[in-house]
Amino acid sequence: MKTVILVHGGAGAWDKSSDRLSRAVPACRAAAAAGQSVLAAGGSAVDAVETAVHVLEDDPTLDAGRGSYPNAKGNVEMDALMMDGRTLNMGAVAAVQRIQNPISLARYVLEHSEHNFFVGPGAEALAEKAGIPRCDPTDLLTEENLTYFRSQNGSDDKSKEISAPAGPLGDTVGAVALDADGNLAAGTSTGGTRHKLPGRVGDSPLVGSGGYADNWTAAVSATGHGESLMKIVISKQACDFVGSGLSAQAACEAAIQLLVERTNGRGGLIAINARGQVGVAYNTNGMPYAYAIGTEPVVSGH
Q1: Which CATH code for domain 4-290?
Q2: What is the DSSP track for 204-262?
Protein backbone atom coordinates (compact mmCIF):
# COMPACT_ATOMS: atom_id res chain seq x y z
CA MET A 1 0.00 0.00 0.00
CA LYS A 2 1.27 3.49 -0.88
CA THR A 3 1.81 5.76 2.09
CA VAL A 4 0.20 9.20 2.23
CA ILE A 5 0.84 12.33 4.31
CA LEU A 6 -1.39 15.42 4.09
CA VAL A 7 -1.02 18.61 6.15
CA HIS A 8 -2.71 22.00 6.48
CA GLY A 9 -1.68 25.37 7.85
CA GLY A 10 -5.14 26.58 8.81
CA ALA A 11 -8.30 27.83 7.11
CA GLY A 12 -8.42 31.49 8.01
CA ALA A 13 -8.51 35.07 6.84
CA TRP A 14 -5.53 34.66 4.52
CA ASP A 15 -4.60 37.48 2.17
CA LYS A 16 -3.73 35.70 -1.08
CA SER A 17 -1.13 38.37 -1.93
CA SER A 18 0.47 38.47 1.53
CA ASP A 19 4.01 37.55 2.44
CA ARG A 20 2.58 35.48 5.28
CA LEU A 21 0.80 33.11 2.90
CA SER A 22 3.94 32.86 0.78
CA ARG A 23 5.71 31.60 3.91
CA ALA A 24 2.89 29.30 5.03
CA VAL A 25 2.82 27.18 1.87
CA PRO A 26 6.56 26.29 2.05
CA ALA A 27 6.05 25.44 5.74
CA CYS A 28 3.35 22.98 4.72
CA ARG A 29 5.58 21.54 2.01
CA ALA A 30 8.38 21.06 4.54
CA ALA A 31 5.98 19.36 6.96
CA ALA A 32 4.68 17.01 4.28
CA ALA A 33 8.22 16.16 3.21
CA ALA A 34 9.19 15.41 6.80
CA GLY A 35 6.19 13.12 7.24
CA GLN A 36 6.93 11.45 3.91
CA SER A 37 10.47 10.65 5.06
CA VAL A 38 9.15 9.04 8.24
CA LEU A 39 6.73 6.86 6.29
CA ALA A 40 9.38 5.93 3.71
CA ALA A 41 11.59 4.69 6.54
CA GLY A 42 8.82 2.41 7.80
CA GLY A 43 7.45 4.74 10.46
CA SER A 44 3.85 4.57 11.60
CA ALA A 45 1.09 6.98 10.68
CA VAL A 46 1.23 8.33 14.24
CA ASP A 47 4.99 8.93 13.88
CA ALA A 48 4.47 10.76 10.59
CA VAL A 49 1.68 12.96 11.96
CA GLU A 50 3.70 13.97 15.02
CA THR A 51 6.76 14.76 12.91
CA ALA A 52 4.78 16.80 10.38
CA VAL A 53 2.92 18.77 13.04
CA HIS A 54 6.23 19.49 14.79
CA VAL A 55 7.42 21.28 11.66
CA LEU A 56 4.22 23.34 11.58
CA GLU A 57 4.35 24.14 15.31
CA ASP A 58 7.96 25.28 14.98
CA ASP A 59 7.16 27.73 12.16
CA PRO A 60 6.27 31.18 13.55
CA THR A 61 4.09 31.92 10.52
CA LEU A 62 1.37 29.57 11.75
CA ASP A 63 -1.00 29.71 14.72
CA ALA A 64 0.41 26.80 16.72
CA GLY A 65 3.47 26.37 18.91
CA ARG A 66 5.86 29.25 18.20
CA GLY A 67 3.32 31.30 16.23
CA SER A 68 0.40 31.03 18.64
CA TYR A 69 -1.92 34.00 19.05
CA PRO A 70 -1.98 35.62 22.50
CA ASN A 71 -5.28 35.58 24.34
CA ALA A 72 -7.06 38.63 25.78
CA LYS A 73 -4.47 38.92 28.54
CA GLY A 74 -1.49 38.48 26.25
CA ASN A 75 -0.79 34.87 27.23
CA VAL A 76 -0.51 31.85 24.98
CA GLU A 77 -2.80 28.88 25.67
CA MET A 78 -2.53 25.97 23.23
CA ASP A 79 -4.62 22.90 22.42
CA ALA A 80 -3.75 19.68 20.59
CA LEU A 81 -5.23 16.31 19.63
CA MET A 82 -3.78 13.03 18.34
CA MET A 83 -5.81 9.98 17.29
CA ASP A 84 -4.74 6.50 16.17
CA GLY A 85 -7.13 5.04 13.59
CA ARG A 86 -6.01 1.47 14.27
CA THR A 87 -7.11 1.41 17.91
CA LEU A 88 -9.32 4.53 18.13
CA ASN A 89 -7.12 5.60 21.03
CA MET A 90 -6.77 9.34 21.38
CA GLY A 91 -4.94 11.90 23.48
CA ALA A 92 -5.73 15.58 23.90
CA VAL A 93 -4.52 18.60 25.86
CA ALA A 94 -5.99 22.08 26.23
CA ALA A 95 -5.00 25.49 27.61
CA VAL A 96 -1.35 24.47 27.96
CA GLN A 97 1.50 26.97 28.23
CA ARG A 98 5.30 26.82 27.99
CA ILE A 99 5.25 23.77 25.68
CA GLN A 100 6.53 24.41 22.17
CA ASN A 101 5.17 21.17 20.73
CA PRO A 102 1.78 20.36 22.30
CA ILE A 103 1.24 17.59 19.74
CA SER A 104 3.92 15.53 21.51
CA LEU A 105 2.09 15.89 24.81
CA ALA A 106 -1.14 14.80 23.10
CA ARG A 107 0.68 11.74 21.79
CA TYR A 108 2.01 10.98 25.27
CA VAL A 109 -1.56 11.04 26.59
CA LEU A 110 -2.62 8.73 23.75
CA GLU A 111 0.06 6.15 24.47
CA HIS A 112 0.83 6.39 28.18
CA SER A 113 -2.29 7.47 30.06
CA GLU A 114 -5.47 5.74 31.13
CA HIS A 115 -7.20 9.09 30.51
CA ASN A 116 -7.83 10.81 27.20
CA PHE A 117 -7.85 14.54 27.92
CA PHE A 118 -5.80 16.81 30.20
CA VAL A 119 -6.08 20.59 30.62
CA GLY A 120 -4.09 23.48 32.07
CA PRO A 121 -1.76 22.78 35.00
CA GLY A 122 -2.63 19.08 35.00
CA ALA A 123 -1.49 18.76 31.40
CA GLU A 124 1.68 20.72 32.12
CA ALA A 125 2.46 18.48 35.11
CA LEU A 126 2.11 15.52 32.80
CA ALA A 127 4.61 17.14 30.43
CA GLU A 128 7.11 17.31 33.28
CA LYS A 129 6.58 13.60 33.97
CA ALA A 130 6.97 12.77 30.29
CA GLY A 131 10.17 14.78 29.97
CA ILE A 132 8.70 16.96 27.24
CA PRO A 133 10.83 20.11 26.91
CA ARG A 134 9.43 23.33 28.36
CA CYS A 135 10.04 26.78 26.94
CA ASP A 136 9.82 30.39 28.02
CA PRO A 137 6.40 31.94 27.30
CA THR A 138 8.09 34.61 25.19
CA ASP A 139 9.40 31.89 22.86
CA LEU A 140 5.83 31.31 21.71
CA LEU A 141 5.01 34.94 20.90
CA THR A 142 6.22 36.31 17.58
CA GLU A 143 7.10 39.97 17.38
CA GLU A 144 4.21 40.43 14.95
CA ASN A 145 1.67 38.98 17.38
CA LEU A 146 3.16 40.81 20.35
CA THR A 147 3.12 44.12 18.48
CA TYR A 148 -0.51 43.59 17.54
CA PHE A 149 -1.43 42.79 21.14
CA ARG A 150 0.30 45.93 22.39
CA SER A 151 -1.44 48.06 19.76
CA GLN A 152 -4.83 46.81 20.94
CA ASN A 153 -4.03 46.85 24.64
CA GLY A 154 -2.17 50.15 24.71
CA SER A 155 0.40 48.83 27.18
CA ASP A 156 2.26 45.77 28.42
CA ASP A 157 -0.14 45.37 31.34
CA LYS A 158 -1.32 41.78 30.98
CA SER A 159 -3.71 42.10 33.92
CA LYS A 160 -6.09 43.95 31.64
CA GLU A 161 -8.23 42.02 29.20
CA ILE A 162 -8.50 43.77 25.86
CA SER A 163 -12.00 44.41 24.64
CA ALA A 164 -11.23 44.44 20.92
CA PRO A 165 -13.31 42.07 18.81
CA ALA A 166 -11.83 38.71 17.94
CA GLY A 167 -9.33 38.67 15.12
CA PRO A 168 -9.10 36.32 12.13
CA LEU A 169 -10.03 32.68 12.35
CA GLY A 170 -7.46 30.60 14.13
CA ASP A 171 -4.98 29.23 11.61
CA THR A 172 -4.86 25.85 13.32
CA VAL A 173 -2.38 23.31 11.90
CA GLY A 174 -2.93 19.63 11.35
CA ALA A 175 -1.83 16.45 9.61
CA VAL A 176 -3.28 13.10 8.60
CA ALA A 177 -1.37 10.04 7.42
CA LEU A 178 -1.71 6.52 6.05
CA ASP A 179 1.23 4.17 6.66
CA ALA A 180 2.44 1.08 4.78
CA ASP A 181 0.42 -1.19 7.10
CA GLY A 182 -2.81 0.59 6.20
CA ASN A 183 -3.13 2.42 9.51
CA LEU A 184 -4.49 5.97 9.69
CA ALA A 185 -3.75 8.76 12.17
CA ALA A 186 -4.75 12.39 12.65
CA GLY A 187 -3.32 15.28 14.63
CA THR A 188 -4.36 18.90 15.17
CA SER A 189 -2.60 21.69 17.09
CA THR A 190 -3.52 25.33 17.67
CA GLY A 191 -2.83 28.51 19.57
CA GLY A 192 -6.52 29.36 19.30
CA THR A 193 -8.23 32.47 18.03
CA ARG A 194 -6.72 35.89 18.51
CA HIS A 195 -7.94 37.67 21.67
CA LYS A 196 -9.84 34.64 22.96
CA LEU A 197 -10.85 34.84 26.60
CA PRO A 198 -8.51 32.99 28.98
CA GLY A 199 -9.55 29.37 29.30
CA ARG A 200 -11.42 29.28 26.01
CA VAL A 201 -11.09 25.92 24.24
CA GLY A 202 -12.17 25.50 20.62
CA ASP A 203 -12.71 22.48 18.43
CA SER A 204 -9.07 21.46 17.94
CA PRO A 205 -8.59 19.12 20.94
CA LEU A 206 -12.13 17.74 20.82
CA VAL A 207 -12.28 14.25 19.36
CA GLY A 208 -14.58 14.22 16.35
CA SER A 209 -14.43 17.98 15.95
CA GLY A 210 -10.78 19.01 15.60
CA GLY A 211 -9.84 15.62 14.23
CA TYR A 212 -10.76 11.98 13.94
CA ALA A 213 -9.12 8.80 12.63
CA ASP A 214 -10.65 5.38 12.01
CA ASN A 215 -9.04 2.69 9.87
CA TRP A 216 -12.52 1.70 8.69
CA THR A 217 -13.18 5.09 7.11
CA ALA A 218 -10.71 8.00 7.14
CA ALA A 219 -8.41 10.33 9.03
CA VAL A 220 -9.49 13.99 9.18
CA SER A 221 -8.12 17.23 10.62
CA ALA A 222 -10.29 20.35 10.83
CA THR A 223 -9.61 24.07 11.08
CA GLY A 224 -11.62 27.29 11.17
CA HIS A 225 -14.20 28.82 13.48
CA GLY A 226 -14.14 26.34 16.34
CA GLU A 227 -17.47 27.26 17.87
CA SER A 228 -19.13 26.36 14.56
CA LEU A 229 -17.07 23.27 13.76
CA MET A 230 -17.83 21.61 17.08
CA LYS A 231 -21.58 22.04 16.64
CA ILE A 232 -21.64 19.47 13.85
CA VAL A 233 -18.68 17.38 15.10
CA ILE A 234 -17.24 18.01 11.66
CA SER A 235 -14.30 15.58 11.50
CA LYS A 236 -16.41 12.60 12.57
CA GLN A 237 -19.09 13.77 10.17
CA ALA A 238 -16.57 13.65 7.30
CA CYS A 239 -15.51 10.14 8.34
CA ASP A 240 -19.15 9.06 8.39
CA PHE A 241 -19.61 10.47 4.89
CA VAL A 242 -16.68 8.30 3.77
CA GLY A 243 -18.32 5.33 5.49
CA SER A 244 -21.49 5.97 3.51
CA GLY A 245 -19.56 5.63 0.24
CA LEU A 246 -18.26 9.12 -0.57
CA SER A 247 -14.67 9.69 -1.66
CA ALA A 248 -12.35 11.62 0.65
CA GLN A 249 -12.77 14.74 -1.49
CA ALA A 250 -16.54 14.47 -1.69
CA ALA A 251 -16.77 13.82 2.07
CA CYS A 252 -14.78 16.98 2.85
CA GLU A 253 -16.96 19.03 0.51
CA ALA A 254 -20.15 17.58 1.99
CA ALA A 255 -18.99 18.34 5.54
CA ILE A 256 -18.18 21.95 4.64
CA GLN A 257 -21.60 22.28 2.98
CA LEU A 258 -23.23 20.94 6.15
CA LEU A 259 -21.21 23.45 8.19
CA VAL A 260 -22.63 26.28 6.09
CA GLU A 261 -26.20 25.01 6.09
CA ARG A 262 -26.41 24.28 9.82
CA THR A 263 -24.21 26.97 11.36
CA ASN A 264 -23.28 29.43 8.60
CA GLY A 265 -19.73 28.64 9.74
CA ARG A 266 -16.39 28.88 8.03
CA GLY A 267 -13.59 26.38 8.06
CA GLY A 268 -11.65 23.70 6.25
CA LEU A 269 -10.85 20.00 6.28
CA ILE A 270 -8.17 17.62 5.08
CA ALA A 271 -8.76 13.87 4.85
CA ILE A 272 -7.22 10.59 3.76
CA ASN A 273 -9.51 7.60 3.39
CA ALA A 274 -8.59 3.97 3.98
CA ARG A 275 -7.75 3.54 0.29
CA GLY A 276 -5.24 6.40 0.33
CA GLN A 277 -7.37 8.98 -1.48
CA VAL A 278 -6.93 12.58 -0.31
CA GLY A 279 -9.50 15.31 0.22
CA VAL A 280 -9.14 19.06 0.79
CA ALA A 281 -12.02 21.53 1.14
CA TYR A 282 -12.56 24.94 2.72
CA ASN A 283 -14.83 27.98 2.45
CA THR A 284 -12.44 30.62 3.82
CA ASN A 285 -10.09 33.00 2.01
CA GLY A 286 -7.50 30.27 1.90
CA MET A 287 -6.00 27.19 3.53
CA PRO A 288 -2.36 26.33 2.79
CA TYR A 289 -1.87 22.59 2.44
CA ALA A 290 0.53 20.00 1.06
CA TYR A 291 0.58 16.26 0.54
CA ALA A 292 2.81 13.45 -0.66
CA ILE A 293 1.74 10.04 -1.95
CA GLY A 294 4.35 7.32 -1.72
CA THR A 295 7.67 8.63 -3.04
CA GLU A 296 6.03 11.10 -5.42
CA PRO A 297 6.93 14.82 -5.22
CA VAL A 298 5.11 16.96 -2.66
CA VAL A 299 2.03 18.74 -4.02
CA SER A 300 0.85 21.98 -2.39
CA GLY A 301 -1.84 24.62 -2.69
CA HIS A 302 -3.77 27.31 -0.85
Answers
A1: 3.60.20.30
A2: TTSBTTTEEE-TTSEEEEEEE-HHHHGGGTHHHHHHHHHHTT--HHHHHHHHHHHHHHH
